[in-house]
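Deliverable D5.2: sample structural annotation.
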Amino acid sequence: MTALDSVLTSEDYRTVKGFFASSAHWFVLAALAGLFLASAMVAPDFPLYKNVAWLVFSRLRPMHTNMMIFGFVGSALLGSAYYYVPHLTRSPLRSPGMGRAVVWLWNLTVASGTVTLALGYTQSREYAEWVWPVDILLLVVFVLTFCNLLMTVLAREEKLLYVSIWYAFGAMIFTFFIYFFGNAVWNPGTGAITGMPDGILAWFYGHGIVGLFLTPLGVGLAYYVIPIVIRAPLFSHAVSLIGFWTILMFYPHIGTHHLLQTPAPTWLKIIAVTGSIGMLIPVLAVLINLWLTMRGKLGQIHADTGGKFVFAGLVWYLFVCVQGPFQSLPSVQTVTHLTNWVIGHSHIAVFGFAGFIGLGGIYFITPRITGRPLYSNKLADIQYWLVLVGLSGFFLVLTAAGLIQGTGWLYGKTVYVILPELHVYWVWRLGFGVLIVSGAVVGLYNIMRSLYGSGAVGDEQ
């Protein structure tokens, strides 16, 4: 037990527990919504998807994406930040009461956004569908979190700010601004502006919510977990800061690579594609730094439940950030744009990279805040393989389907010819989705028993 652990109480950890429990519940709901969407692709004429308003594809899809981004992954990563910031600064959380209030406000935000979307209230902008009152709630959460963590850091005993803290604060600051501008909060009636500038603004936000919210928090958590699991210092603090500053340099302006086929300004398209390729610098800085940190110790990583999830998330991060710059090229987008390829890419970004690291944070931190082992390492291992196999198959199937779509369109095939060719891939997608939902349910049971149960089950710990 560290010196800080001796002065922290269960009261200090209620915020972390609240976020972790929220993440586990939202994962199940988000995965179920995704399963309904996958089944609607297989059987779009099924009466349920035509006669039940909130199951209409156009409502359910934004419910699914926002629950995944904010409810599941966001909760896990924010809860982890509420744990590692006090520990890295050797200073108790400044206001546990404010932290608990943030948990409730965060869940109120996600729940309100989900319900309003189910009722048909939307801003009709991809990834920015939540209506104005929900936007305000979310911004309040970021302000309160920033203030609480900032006061904690200002009262610190440890003078060196480890890189995870840099990433946590970068996420809070930049997410606030991209959310404010990307959702046109000053225009509550529509949450949008007009014309081509609105498309540019929308993808400034749509891409930024992954790159400046999930990515910094996910990378910061990986930088925290990996050195502790292998009991070795980070290879290079300087390289970690290069990665931090270059991601803030390149990421904000690359969203326009989603608009290469539109009348967006050519100079902005060039900047977006160049920045997308430039993103290889921060990505390689993170991955090389962590690889050199854990070189020769992969056995220790996979012996630790949380470490195993985080490592898998980093592998997904490599796939995401090689594929991303590649598909930003105009010659590649000629085939991949608006196809299932892009859907597969977005899933390994949010769920594969950030989601796996978020789950790793939950499993790594939970025993440290409860003072006892996980309820079941076997159940955690089952969840790991269910979601890993499920997402891997999901990604491969959608990538193949996207290439069929893109090449078919390129050579003049009509939609009505291509759709029957895709049906078998959507059936496979549904099957792999069942594995992901099963993993979410297993994780919910294991995490809740670990957080609030009386002890571990009798499996080997």
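Annotation notes: The radius of gyration is 21 Å. The chain has a mean pLDDT of 93.
The annotation will be released with the project's public dataset once the embargo ends.
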